[in-house]
Amino acid sequence: MTDSPVYEPLIQPLLSFLPDNMIVPVVVSITTLLLASWIMIQQLFGPWVERKIMARMQGRRGPSYVGWKGILQIPADLLKLIFKEDVMPRRADSLGFFVSIAIISITSIISFGPLPWGTNLIGANFGVGVLYVFAIFSLFPPAMFIGGWSSNSKYALIGGFRSAGQLLAYEIPMFLSGIAIIAVNGSFSLMTITENQMKAGAGWNLFTPQLGFLGIFTGFVFFIAGVAESERIPFDIPEAEAELVMGPRTEFSGWRYALIMMVEYIHLTVNSLLFIYLFFGGYDAIPFVELEFERWWPVQFIVLTAKLYLFVIIAAWLRSALPRMRIDQLLSLGWKQLLPIALIAAIGTLGFISPPLLGLPAGVMYQWIVSGSTFVLIFLFMYLHYRSTRRTN
Amino acid sequence: MAVSLTLFFITLGVMLIFPIIMRFFENVFLKMILYVIFSGGLVVMLGIDAAIIAPLMLLTVYFASMAVADPRVMRAAIYLLMAMVLLGFIYIFLNSEILMALHISVYGGGIAILILFAAVLIEENTTIIDEQTMRTGYLITVILAFTMGILTFRGRPEALTTTTIASLDDGFALVNDFSVFLWTTYNHVIPFLAMLILGALIGAVRLALTDKEVINELGVETEEVSS
């Protein structure tokens, strides 16, 4: 706690008049609030960046009237939505209508807790870091389903079904692909995983030879599953505005709609951040080297924010470039392709780190045999799958 | 221990009465001041940990009992989900984050979505249990929740043992040693969880043995589709 950069300016003055049993809760609350505020500010400007980039790709200008180049468009929309009348459909289930929004918004905000923004700049360094975020994520499918059901609308109900099915299908490959990294680092803590990638000679997990280059596969699966978890194009089947109006969100308006849209972007942010921590070096500026300036927390803070915006730009790029998948293609990709690839890659990574785990003798040669066989197995699997689907079609 | 338990239950009692008292006050500012005084009083009386755990436990028991008592199946499933989620957050305050993560991801996420999928296939106003069974279930839930609440309170962090595998070289002499090693002082709670699962199993058997007509009433299509 005393290592935190915000300890001296913000927390130390408080300690003199706080009783002992209040120190930890107050410190955790202040740090989490500060970091959560920063992420919430991203929710106001991240969508603007995305809309501008999409507009540029599609030959439009995007938001341009409110503020400089339309930068205040999202805050203005938010204000408008907050002051709109709160409407609930007739015969809607009032409990479910409220509970779904409450679960979605509260859990998305508390998922910021174990995300570090610099060395020791973290809300709460839980021992279960990643597992905590995944546990929180697992509450979204039931909440979306309840939201869809309680709206008393067929579009919302079908959207709820689809949303729950999709989130379930992609949560498992996402977690499986993260497991290898967790096992290699021997820790669930995102700060420890990032610190390990910062060491001299250690590259980022996505392309480091220390994992036999197998991070490419696990990272690839994690990224695709992350985009699908955010329910964005090409995976926005639950929404599919041409078929289902707005999916499970159809009947939500006013502040409820504002919260749901905010949660959608928070999802994108948290998934991007998880990918950055696990595979893209976290707040490390340059891979393979350990420089003095990288240890300075403002640099780490800026580096992480820059990486986050890089992923927002990639998400916008995907959104404007790719068509929407069909529901069967989407579920097939999740269960039949990503899940086996994640499993093979996870086992391969563990085997590379310690060949005796797979019943092989220890040694560098065996490590590279495991890595090579994993590459071959994955490509073979992908080829066989491609051939079988081509025949079916 | 006895003093803190008494304090705890007095606070729970006050929390139950508090919403009823608040109905007599119309002024919003007065209400806000009363809420602040009440929350401050809770923190001073119980300490920050227990002041947060107490409302959480109360809400958990409320949602758990409503999950049994509400005759509308979908509502019951929602209450169950809420009870599971809140129970998960209680584990954080009992210094067991790993249990929280597993509990929420398995029961709050996986099992809840299965139950919701099943519940949504049932017609909206169908009740599959009669009044008397419901009352019995409600009573059992309250007793179980109350007992588990006390037992969980007994296993507060300061009472946790520091047993490690290294200190058990001689092997597990008794089943009790093993359960203490696995679940520390929470080993008292496990038999009750087993009872809950047994209850669920009996319920599943009961549903499986239900007459075909009743299943038809539940909205499940049993007729074969002619080709």
How does this model look, in words?
The complex is a heterodimer of chains A (393) and B (227). Chain A has 393 residues and is mainly alpha-helical. Helices cover 66% and strands 0% of the residues of chain A. Chain A has helices spanning 7-15, 20-57, 73-82, 94-110, 129-137, 140-150, 154-185, 190-198, 215-229, 241-244, 255-279, 297-321, 327-353, 364-392. In chain A, helix 2 (20-57) packs across helix 11, helix 2 (20-57) runs parallel beside helix 12 (297-321) and helix 11 packs across helix 12 (297-321). The longest helix of chain A is centred in the N-terminal third of the chain and has 38 residues, at 20-57. The N and C termini of chain A lie far apart (59 Å). Chain B contains nine helices and no strands. Chain B has helices spanning 2-22, 28-46, 48-69, 73-93, 97-120, 131-154, 175-183, 190-208, 212-217. The termini of chain B are far apart. Helices cover 73% and strands 0% of the residues of chain B. Chain B is mostly helical. Classes of the chains: A mainly alpha (393), B mainly alpha (227). Chain A binds chain B through residues 21-22, 25, 93, 95-96, 99, 103, 126-128, 131-132, 134-136, 138-139, 141-142, 145-146, 149, 157, 164, 168, 171, and chain B through 47-49, 74-75, 78, 81-82, 85, 88, 97-98, 100-102, 104-105, 108-110, 112-113, 116-117, 120.
Write the layout of secondary structure elements.
The complex is a heterodimer of chains A (393) and B (227).
Chain A: H1 7-15, H2 20-57, H3 73-82, H4 94-110, H5 129-137, H6 140-150, H7 154-185, H8 190-198, H9 215-229, H10 241-244, H11 255-279, H12 297-321, H13 327-353, H14 364-392
Helix pairs in contact in A: 2-11, 2-12, 4-6, 4-11, 6-7, 7-9, 7-13, 9-11, 9-13, 11-12, 13-14
Chain B: H1 2-22, H2 28-46, H3 48-69, H4 73-93, H5 97-120, H6 131-154, H7 175-183, H8 190-208, H9 212-217
Helix pairs in contact in B: 1-2, 1-3, 2-3, 3-4, 3-6, 4-5
